[in-house]
């Protein structure tokens, strides 16, 4: 029997043999699923397999919990409303080192691991970059043995399933829990009560001090569900704890006491709606009451959960030595007044002591520059939902503004600018300001982004507190996005520089000399070709989309947003078609190209949805144009998610990162592509700036205005029509869209999009069009020389080890958290 050799430490303490694995799998199937092998459904097989693997992690998990508790050192509490985890089975197999064992065990039963793993439904508990970042970060924290709890919400419905009906996006609910998930362990007995509404009262406590009491109107139970987060190359297994809302019998005291049974039952449903569904907006939140309830719900539960783990009689002044709360965007910022409330109202600390503790316990990561993405909550709504918290926010603001007035006497304009409370268009709480005031450190997510935060969005704050501001450039986990998604590249790297790079990604540097090695380049191209073939067959089976795999794969995958400029990519496609139609270029001279889009639009974002319709309409015509046969294809598979990303990114030659400079905070897809050997065509925006610096300008297709150039054009007055009128190629593309050729002759079909481009174009698509087309021409020329292209691609892999999320986490530890590792002895 195959025995796994223990080369590195694993997240399993029991060395598994194929026989023991098989026995446990059969036991799961029989006694947990209640089926015979012969009659088991594919889902039965998956559930049994997943639970088998899960159980191999449990011993190390329990040891981790005990060891970290005994160490009593600082815990990182990552507070995030989103975790976009992706499928879990392969990652669990990788960290336990059980992949080969599972493969052999299933094989001996006449089953295929590939077949079974493909049924896994991914938990889509996030929108995009921010949620995926949280998932990468907890992976790296576990790998680095840092005591961590990831806190979040167990949405019953994650990000919607996107379908296309006649080219238009239609959203379907994501019922990821229909068959249950093998990865979670609920603990109803550890539920925490979370309160809402009601009013506050002044009272005198036993010691004769005046205290405020919050008399809430309703109570909801937060039930924790635990998920194991295994590290790689370590026995450490951390915890992700997601909260689910459950009604208490006395949810709404008023209705409960009135004896109206039906109303009381209805009220239960209302309570449980809190964790029902993920809000599907990425970067442009809607100010919905239920969303604020979600935020307070999970943050209040998380803080209470941590505080109850402290020993009896713990001196709360030492809290910042025991915990650091990281705010992933403003979504959890209500935690700042919540901790104040607990310390002052419930634990009897003075306001000053409580403020000192609170400020030292929180840090804030900002993920955006778009003004419309900065959350504000109306004072009206906040006061109704959380009356005591609003009082606390007012007092925090008073005290903060007193400090501002002392430093800048007479500068009332500045006071108004910096106030946590905005007066117009309505009185509302600026959550980013509250987060900044309530935190020790504030960080942006890429170098350019942090500079712009400091110098533009939060400039008054950085002038007042210069040492508060720092940068931590985002990263991605190489376990999922190289090893698991691109196993052939990972093997090639292993063979070339030896193992060990997967948690020491700067070692990819050792690949640099091989860029000059013709046989390595050939092997590297074979890896890429294999990934294209794999993607092509997946797409045929998943979407019925037929593609040729001997083409340049040009990929743009990310949320649909005007600032990300999918329109610019589409104008390139239309330009090629227009040039061919006009005979300006011969189709035969074109490099065969497959353009792949993947993008969900927020359901209420009309412009984004119209752009999706336009992309599908163009694809439909281009893909059926005989002139373009074998030269240009556009594929837009619906429902881009982590599962698809893992197959698509390794197949890409060209990575489209074309946002308007100064708008994309970081981007993380850009990093995944580079590490998988795609070249970037991009603007100097977000982390592209750092990618460009690291790989070198000669290995990057740079175009477009810089952020200062964008600023001056905007200051000077931007007129998109002048770009349209002054550029024949651009005019050709836009006129072709307006001609009705993509809409069965209907010239008005895309008016909504086109007139916005011509008369508003907030993200300056037309201004960057010309340099983008020129950069694409450079791409064509470069791709024609495959040896040189491979050299560039290899250097992209070799030079982007910096973007491991292990490095991001090390930066958080050094600059912000200062939490020591607690290694687990097996
Ligand atoms: C989000 O995904 C991001 C920002 C934001 O304010 C809200 C959401 Cl849901 C993204 C940024 O757009 C992206 O640039 C960045 O890479 C990502 O967060 C992670 O930092």
Automatic annotation (TrEMBL):
Catalytic activity: [(1->4)-alpha-D-glucosyl](n) + phosphate = [(1->4)-alpha-D-glucosyl](n-1) + alpha-D-glucose 1-phosphate
CDD domains listed in its UniProt record: GT35_Glycogen_Phosphorylase
Keyword terms, alphabetized: Carbohydrate metabolism, Glycogen metabolism, Glycosyltransferase, Phosphoprotein, Pyridoxal phosphate, Transferase
EC number: 2.4.1.1
Organism domain of life: Bacteria
GO CC terms, sorted: cytoplasm
Cofactors that this protein relies on: pyridoxal 5'-phosphate
SUPFAM superfamilies attached to this UniProt entry: UDP-Glycosyltransferase/glycogen phosphorylase
Modified residues (N6-(pyridoxal phosphate)lysine): 672
Gene Ontology process terms (BP): glycogen catabolic process
Pfam family, one: Phosphorylase
Enzyme class: transferase
Record-level Gene Ontology MF annotations: glycogen phosphorylase activity; pyridoxal phosphate binding
Function: Allosteric enzyme that catalyzes the rate-limiting step in glycogen catabolism, the phosphorolytic cleavage of glycogen to produce glucose-1-phosphate, and plays a central role in maintaining cellular and organismal glucose homeostasis. Phosphorylase is an important allosteric enzyme in carbohydrate metabolism. Enzymes from different sources differ in their regulatory mechanisms and in their natural substrates. However, all known phosphorylases share catalytic and structural properties.
Family named by the database record: Belongs to the glycogen phosphorylase family.
Protein name: Alpha-1,4 glucan phosphorylase
């Amino acid at each position: 029997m195959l025995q796994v050799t223990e080369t590195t430490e694993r997240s399993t303490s029991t060395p598994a043999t194929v026989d023991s694995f098989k026995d446990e799998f059969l036991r799961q199937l029989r006694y947990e699923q209640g089926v015979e092998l012969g009659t088991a459904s594919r889902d039965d097989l998956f559930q049994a397999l997943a639970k088998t693997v899960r159980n191999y992690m449990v011993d190390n998990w329990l040891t981790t919990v005990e060891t970290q508790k005994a160490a009593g050192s600082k815990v990182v509490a990552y507070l995030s409303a989103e975790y976009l985890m992706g499928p879990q089975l392969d990652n669990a197999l990788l960290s336990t080192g059980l992949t080969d064992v599972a493969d052999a065990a299933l094989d001996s039963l006449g089953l295929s691991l590939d077949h079974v793993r493909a049924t896994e439904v991914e938990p889509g508990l996030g929108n995009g970059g921010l949620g995926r970042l949280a998932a990468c970060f907890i992976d790296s924290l576990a790998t680095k043995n840092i005591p961590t709890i990831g806190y979040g919400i167990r949405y019953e419905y994650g990000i919607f399933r996107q379908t296309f009906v006649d080219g238009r996006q239609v959203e379907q609910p994501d019922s990821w829990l229909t068959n249950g998930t093998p990865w979670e362990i609920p603990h109803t007995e550890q539920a925490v009560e979370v309160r809402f509404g009601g009013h506050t009262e002044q009272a005198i406590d036993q010691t004769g001090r005046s205290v405020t009491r919050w008399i809430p109107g309703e109570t909801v139970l937060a039930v924790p569900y635990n998920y194991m987060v295994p590290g790689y190359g370590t026995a450490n297994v951390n915890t992700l704890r997601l909260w689910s809302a459950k009604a208490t019998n006395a949810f709404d005291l008023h209705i409960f006491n009135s004896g109206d049974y039906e109303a009381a039952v209805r009220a239960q449903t209302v309570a449980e709606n809190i964790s029902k569904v993920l809000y599907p907006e990425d970067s442009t939140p809607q100010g919905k009451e239920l969303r604020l309830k979600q935020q307070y719900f999970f943050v209040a539960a998380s803080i209470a959960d941590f505080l109850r783990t402290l020993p009896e009689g713990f001196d709360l002044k030492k809290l910042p030595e025991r915990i650091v709360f990281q705010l992933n965007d403003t979504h959890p910022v209500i935690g700042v007044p919540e901790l104040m409330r607990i310390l002052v109202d419930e634990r009897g600390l003075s306001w000053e002591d409580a403020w000192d503790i609170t400020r030292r316990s929180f840090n804030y990561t900002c993920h955006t520059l778009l003004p419309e993405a900065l959350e504000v909550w109306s004072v009206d709504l906040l006061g109704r939902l959380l009356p005591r918290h609003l009082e606390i926010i007012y007092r925090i603001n008073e005290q903060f503004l007193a400090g501002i007035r002392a430093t800048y006497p007479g500068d009332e304009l500045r006071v108004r600018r910096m106030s946590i409370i905005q007066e117009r268009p309505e009185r509302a709480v600026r959550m980013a300001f509250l987060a900044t005031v309530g935190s020790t450190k504030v960080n942006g997510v890429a170098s350019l982004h942090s500079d712009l935060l400091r110098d533009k969005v939060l400039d008054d704050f950085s002038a007042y507190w210069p040492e508060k501001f720092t940068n931590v450039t985002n990263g991605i986990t190489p376990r999922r996005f190289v090893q698991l998604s691109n196993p052939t590249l990972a093997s090639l790297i292993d063979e070339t520089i030896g193992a060990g790079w997967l948690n020491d990604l700067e070692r990819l540097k050792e690949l640099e000399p091989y860029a000059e090695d013709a046989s390595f380049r050939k092997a590297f191209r074979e890896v890429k070709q294999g990934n294209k073939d794999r993607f092509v067959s997946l797409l045929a089976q998943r979407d019925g989309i037929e593609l040729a795999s001997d083409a340049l794969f040009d990929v743009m995958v990310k949320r649909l947003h005007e600032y990300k400029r999918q329109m610019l990519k589409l104008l390139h496609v239309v330009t090629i078609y227009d040039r061919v139609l006009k005979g300006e270029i011969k189709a035969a001279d074109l490099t065969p190209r497959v353009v792949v889009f993947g993008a969900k639009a927020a359901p209420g974002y009309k412009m984004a949805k119209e752009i999706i319709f336009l992309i599908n309409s163009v694809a439909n015509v281009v893909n059926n144009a005989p002139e373009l046969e074998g030269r240009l294809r556009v594929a837009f598979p619906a429902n881009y998610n982590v599962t698809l990303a893992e197959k698509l990114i390794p197949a890409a030659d060209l990575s489209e990162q074309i946002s308007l400079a100064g708008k994309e905070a970081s981007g993380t897809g850009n990093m995944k592509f580079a590490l998988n050997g795609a070249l970037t065509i991009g603007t100097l925006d977000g982390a592209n700036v750092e990618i460009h610096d690291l790989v070198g300008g000669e290995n990057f297709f740079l175009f477009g205005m810089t952020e200062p150039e964008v600023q001056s054009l905007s200051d000077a007055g931007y007129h998109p029509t002048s770009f349209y009128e002054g550029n024949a190629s651009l005019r050709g593309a836009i006129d072709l869209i307006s001609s009705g050729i993509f809409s069965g002759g209907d010239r008005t079909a895309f008016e909504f999009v086109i007139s916005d481009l011509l008369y508003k174009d907030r993200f300056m698509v037309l201004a960057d069009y010309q340099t983008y087309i020129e950069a694409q021409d450079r791409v064509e020329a470069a791709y024609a020389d495959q040896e040189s292209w491979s050299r560039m691609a290899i250097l992209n892999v070799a030079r982007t080890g910096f973007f491991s999320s292990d490095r991001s986490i090390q930066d958080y530890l050094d600059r912000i958290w200062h939490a020591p590792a607690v290694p687990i002895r097996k």
